């Protein structure tokens, strides 16, 4: 592995540090360690928070132009080191190298977007009803931000928090997933090369997710916490953050429906299904979890989908031509196996796949005639499984799509523009893909409703998450 950006040290107070204990990071494709990182403690986290608070007093007064120029420099350096970062990402997460390269570009798009959008945190002048009084608002960074990110997108989940925070004038204490810390540490090296001042960014590597998470959520110096992960953990962090009345952003679990109407372009729908389901072996929060296909085209769609799924190549992501990598760990594999077994026990049949290949690799699978009482209908699978349900009417499709406590992403295919408008408005979801299986874009708001979260990332709304609106009243 290239060593330019690869480091086995955490990053606190502008220094790369070791710890009393370390833990290994395992490549899920090989089962072998790719390195170790410090297993930092709650005390280390407190030190990082204090350093971030101290740095914030200076960083908030750096001009927005200079802050944006530094973030732009990070963008340029990430682009320069794209191949190396992608290699690190594939080795720690298992995703195919082609996907890692796409993720680096996607992650970096947030650096580019917010390096420009940071200059547009506009205040306003408000007409006063009292003679001689002048009213105005300004926007200022919230302060120290705690960010907790997952393993499935080791860089993109970080940059869409860090980029807006930095341009807003905030300092950041980041806790990346213990499975994938090296992408975060590579970003720390790049931030240092870009000239980000010491103490503005901190990377806490630790296996004590609960302890570190609680400290970040309850420490009075932290003004905001941004979390991407499961709904259950998000609820706990929200409860903990409430004790100090912190601002929170939560991007939580999903259960995305994918509806194919009988007037859809079936080939395009199959193409979108592959993109929306098998990216990162189905381990994404916006991955399709439930396929609802109108009964008149159910047979044709399922046959074409099965044919396409059978062609997918599974294996080590560093090997050429691989499209589907391993599950992240044994727990992830067991959940996929349990969902398949449960669906089959309740009456579903296998169109293709359905078995473990070896180690953490699971066959890309299509389940047919899945009953609505199957666990996979209500729980996020996080694996390479297409579960196909049938429906009769548009109204039924919308009802089924909304029959979940989650509302992150949804997708549907139709060539009827009026139906597209009705269904898009009727589906309870923060994001809707219409005739596409991909919705993520730095210039668009990413986030969910119901138990899928609070707040938005990306777009101008993503910047608003890191600023406070201050009202100024000038007397006569």
TrEMBL record:
Q: Which residues form the Aldehyde dehydrogenase domain?
A: 20-471
Q: List GO BP terms, alphabetically.
A: gamma-aminobutyric acid catabolic process
Quote the Pfam families the UniProt record gives: Aldedh
Q: Which UniProt keywords apply?
A: Oxidoreductase
- What domain of life is recorded for the organism? Bacteria
CDD domains attached here? ALDH_F5_SSADH_GabD
Task: Extract the GO molecular function terms from the UniProt entry.
Answer: succinate-semialdehyde dehydrogenase (NAD+) activity
Active-site residues are: 251
Claim: tRNA-binding is one of the keywords in the record: no
Concerning its family, UniProt says: Belongs to the aldehyde dehydrogenase family.
User: Which PANTHER family does this UniProt record tie to the protein?
Assistant: SUCCINATE-SEMIALDEHYDE DEHYDROGENASE, MITOCHONDRIAL
**Name this polypeptide is given:** Succinate-semialdehyde dehydrogenase/glutarate-semialdehyde dehydrogenase
């Amino acid at each position: 592995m290239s060593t330019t950006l690869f480091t086995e040290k955490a990053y606190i107070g502008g220094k790369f540090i070791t710890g009393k204990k370390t833990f290994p990071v395992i490549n899920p494709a090989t089962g072998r360690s790719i390195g170790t990182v410090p297993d930092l403690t709650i005390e280390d986290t407190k030190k990082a928070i204090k350093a971030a608070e101290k740095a914030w007093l200076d960083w908030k007064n750096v001009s927005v132009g200079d802050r944006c120029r530094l973030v732009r420099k990070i963008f340029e350096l990430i682009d320069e080191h794209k191949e190396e970062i992608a290699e690190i990402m594939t080795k720690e997460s298992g995703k195919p190298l082609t996907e890692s390269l796409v993720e680096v570009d996607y992650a970096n798009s947030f650096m580019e977007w917010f390096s420009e959008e940071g200059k547009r945190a506009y205040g306003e002048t408000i007409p006063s009803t009292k003679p001689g009084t002048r009213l105005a608002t300004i926007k200022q960074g919230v302060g120290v931000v705690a960010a907790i990110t997952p393993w499935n997108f080791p860089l993109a989940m970080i940059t869409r928090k860090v980029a807006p925070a930095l341009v807003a004038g905030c300092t950041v204490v980041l806790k990346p997933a213990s499975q994938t810390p090296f992408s975060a540490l590579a970003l720390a090296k790049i931030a240092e090369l870009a000239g980000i001042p010491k103490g503005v960014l901190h990377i806490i590597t630790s296996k004590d997710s609960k302890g570190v998470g609680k400290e970040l959520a309850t420490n009075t110096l932290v003004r905001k916490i941004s979390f991407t992960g499961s709904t259950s953990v998000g609820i706990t962090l929200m409860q903990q953050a409430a004790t100090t009345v912190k601002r929170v952003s939560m991007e939580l679990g999903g259960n995305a429906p994918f509806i194919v109407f009988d007037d859809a372009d079936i080939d395009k729908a199959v193409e979108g299904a592959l993109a929306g389901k098998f990216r990162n072996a189905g381990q994404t929060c916006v991955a399709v979890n439930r396929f609802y296909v109108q009964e008149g085209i159910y047979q044709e769609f399922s046959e074409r989908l099965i044919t396409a799924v059978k062609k997918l190549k599974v294996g080590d992501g560093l090997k050429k031509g691989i499209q589907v990598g391993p599950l992240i760990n044994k727990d992830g594999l067991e959940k996929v196996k349990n969902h398949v077994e449960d669906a089959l026990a309740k009456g579903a049949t296998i169109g293709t796949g359905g078995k473990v290949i070896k180690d953490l690799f699971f066959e890309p699978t299509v389940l047919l005639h899945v009953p609505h009482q199957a666990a996979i209908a209500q729980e996020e699978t996080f694996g390479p499984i297409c579960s196909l349900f049938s429906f009769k009417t548009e109204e039924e499709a919308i009802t089924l799509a909304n029959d979940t406590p989650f509302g992150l992403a949804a997708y549907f295919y139709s060539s009827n523009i009026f139906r597209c408008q009705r269904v898009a408005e009727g589906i309870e979801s923060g994001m809707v893909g219409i005739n596409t299986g991909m919705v993520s874009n730095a210039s668009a708001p990413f986030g969910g409703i119901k138990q899928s979260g609070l707040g938005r990332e990306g777009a101008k709304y993503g910047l608003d998450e890191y600023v406070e609106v201050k009202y100024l009243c000038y007397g006569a």
